[in-house]
Structure formats: C-alpha cells, structure tokens
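Re: the request from the purification team.
They wanted to know what the chain is likely to look like in 3D before they choose a buffer screen. I agreed to run a prediction and write the result into the notebook, where they can find it.
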Amino acid sequence: MNTQKLPTKPGPTAVCAQLGNAARVMPHFLRFETEPKRYGGRVATLSVFGGTGALDEALRDGCQDRVVVIDAQSQTLTSFFGPAQLDHALAGKVRAIVMFGAICVVSKLKASPIPIIAMGFTPRMAPSATGTLIRHYFMTEIGPIQDEGPHNSQPGDYIVGSENGHVICKTTDYARVFGQNAL
C-alpha cells in the first residue's frame, strides 16, 4: 500500500477505505450531535451506574487527550451527561464525548467546544453525589469497545468522527496504516 498520499489526520471515510473490515462503523442510533467537527483519539470507556460522581472525577482527572465513550445504555430514562460533566471534560482536556445513553440540558451542550455525540436526550439528570464506574470495555452491537486497560496493557480502540459518521478500529491498525504521528 502506498502511504505517501494518506492524510495525516484522516476522517471516517479514509479510515474505512484503508482499514476495510477492521474499521467498524458506529451505530446510527447516535442521534444527538453538536455542530459536526472532525475528531479522533484513543478511547477511554466509562460505564456509569447510579449517579455522576465517579464519572465527573474520571472526566476531570483520568481521560486527558482521549475520546471518552460513556456507556449508560441501561439508564435510558436518566441522563449522566450535562453541562457539569462538560465542564469536567473540558478541565480534563477530553477530545470528544460519545454517549451510549441520554444527555441533559441540550441547549447548553449545543455550543460545546468539543464534539458530543449521544443516543438522545432526557430532562431527567442522575444525582451528582453518588455513582459507580466500570472502566476498560463494554459491548455494543458492533462488538466490544475497549480502552488500553489498567496500566495501558492492551492496544485499545481508536475513534475517528466527522459529519460523515463515526468509525472505530484498533489503535494498532490505525497507527500501522496512518503512522504514529496521526494519533
């Protein structure tokens, strides 16, 4: 393969074209999206339960330079991401948020400086002082989405998104084709 003409920061179309079946297209049920902006980054997965306390801490202190994929699918009537979580994500230098669940206070999230992609929205917000968090991977209709695990011991996934869609692949495949500088 001639990599001379590949983009240095490829979008979803280029990733799909170069990686073929190794690139998985994110589900189309992700219905809410801030103004489309190209983004990409290593994945940090967070499955939340009960409240937003642990999520807030992880966004602020443990997800720098990552695309955070939040699993709250089992909590469909309650949101786990709103303006307070956006503030924590910005303070923690998160690249983008992909929410498998609902968001809250859409009017304040629409102007977000980082991309936010979500299944939908609800007026109900989870309590802020409680909550538990499970990290490292969760299952979706396109298979598992996983981060690098404890102590960065596994390759993890990489997500690229734009107005053309959202694609996930193994970080090792992405770096092999597009180079370490593209990460």
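For the purification team: The helical segments are 12-19, 53-61, 83-91, 106-109, 171-178.
Please add any questions underneath this entry.
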